[in-house]
Amino acid sequence: MEASELIQRIQALRDKEAKSKVGLSEEDEDELGELQCQRHDEQIREIPSPQCCEAMRQFPAVYMYLPWDEKNDQYGSENPQWHLSLPEHLSRLTRGTLYRDAPEARHCPYCGKRLPKFVKRTDELPQPMMNHEAHYCRTCNERNNECVCHPHEVAWRLEDQHDDAE
After folding, report:
1. What are phi and psi of 98, to 5 degrees?
2. Does the predicted model carry a pTM greater than 0.85?
3. Is the pLDDT assigned to residue 52 strictly greater than 80?
4. CA 6 to chain CA centroid, nearest Å
5. Rounded CA gap, 63 and 156, in Å?
6. Residue 107 CA to its chain's centroid (Å)
7. CA 111 to CA 127: how far, in whole Å?
């Protein structure tokens, strides 16, 4: 099932649930849960990630950090950066440390290759796009952790990749 079909089916089940006085049937609830898991996995795959070596593909040690633009009240105005992934126990020890404070990475910690730069995509972006405000997406009106829209990061590609339109 393509992303757009998956999003439409999830939305249809959510609409059905909202209109129902008793909620979804057990079958529909199971289907909705499975579809949301599939969409979450797709959202993660949509975010650019380095593919320089097998270790990085299996155990990502860096992540794409997309800064929030305070001036324009949106993501994506500033260039993304690679940041080192912090183990969960370390992030708990550094409570109060913001993601933007995580160390920036420039080379793969496994193979030592320089990490690719980000380039703004020139082709048409997939729709619907996330539009988060506080704890809700303004596009789908769902809580951020339930949002099935395309993540902000899809507006960028890695320097060595090409847009679909090219």
Report:
1. -85, 155
2. no
3. yes
4. 16
5. 13
6. 22
7. 36
The domain ranges of the chain are 1-46
Per DSSP, the three-state class of 4 is helix
What's the chain's length in residues? 166
pLDDT tens for each residue of 75-134: 666 789 898 886 654 554 555 555 556 788 999 999 999 999 999 988 888 889 888 777
Contact 138, 147 (CB under 8 A): no
Q: Spell out the alpha helix ranges (H) of the chain.
A: 3-19, 26-46, 54-58, 88-93
Q: Which two tokens stand for residue 96?
A: 């109060």
Separation CA 144–CA 4 (nearest Å) = 18
Quick check: 116 and 50 in contact, CB under 8 A? Answer: yes
Joined together, the tokens standing for residue 100 give 């933007």
